[in-house]
Write a structure and sequence with these properties.
- By secondary structure, this protein is an alpha/beta fold.
- The protein has a single domain, classed as 3-Layer(aba) Sandwich (Rossmann fold), CATH 3.40.50.
- The protein is about 45% helix and about 25% strand.
- Strands 5-4-3-6-7-9-8 form a seven-stranded mixed sheet, sandwiched between helices. A two-stranded antiparallel sheet has the order 1-2.
- The longest helix is centred in the C-terminal third of the chain and has 20 residues.
- The protein is globular, with a radius of gyration of 17 Å.
- The chain binds S-adenosylmethionine.
- The site of S-adenosylmethionine has 21 residues, from helix 1 and helix 4.
- S-adenosylmethionine (SAM) binds next to helix 1 and helix 4.
Amino acid sequence: MIKTTHFGFKSIPETDKAHKVAGVFDSVAERYNLMNDLMSVGLHRLWKRFAVEASGVKAGSRVLDIAGGTADLSTLLIKHIGESGEIWLTDINNSMLTIGRDRILDYGMDISVAQCDAEKLPFPENYFDCVSVAFGLRNMTHKDVALKEMLRVLRPGGCVIVLEFSKVWKPLQAFYDNYSFKVLPAIGKFIVNDENSYRYLAESIRVHPSQEELKQLMQHTGFERVEYFNLAAGVVALHRGFKF
Ligand SMILES: C[S@@+](CC[C@H](N)C(=O)[O-])C[C@H]1O[C@@H](n2cnc3c(N)ncnc32)[C@H](O)[C@@H]1O
């Protein structure tokens, strides 16, 4: 029997998901940063700063940024780890990763880059002080497998930070639905001539686990002291968990 998974509201064979997600990010990569600023009216920058503060990353830390894309989080993390630290920008998608790598080089910063699947990380176990994933987990076919991999490569005492869209505060739901199903695809059509990718964005958020569900999934994976912080009334949540 064929195993299926979500691609937005559609149910598709698991084997097709990575390819479809790649299509989305190949299509939007060039204007990805501009779209983020427009869609969130710049708020994503604050969410990412909050995530980096919560990570506890400091000079000398070893950090793995998974699904790092155009390197927003990596550029913030680099400033914390200093010259004695080590940071890897990784993503499954070459279009996104190339933009991220070029951006880092343009800023005159140094980073290691690897194109890889979060579900099969090419790193040793017990290595990183912090693993980060921002707005990436939602797109992965097997979130449980990806989380297990994150736990494996973390050193005991290290933490994972997962920044992701989540369940918005109920009184705002109608407004938020209207915004995400009508306004976002319209902006996507205007800026990148691709409304479907932004419809996928809205749908994928709706089928992603809630704050509590993700917390449970992380605990089930083996993370400890798991907690989350709601941002913008739950539009986004930052989950943090430790390996002991
Ligand atoms: C919405 S972007 C987030 C980029 C960046 N972290 C940010 O916050 O701006 C999602 C990223 O997840 C990546 N991605 C999706 N599935 C992945 C997987 N299985 N392994 C690694 N990266 C993946 C996509 O290629 C894309 O670059």
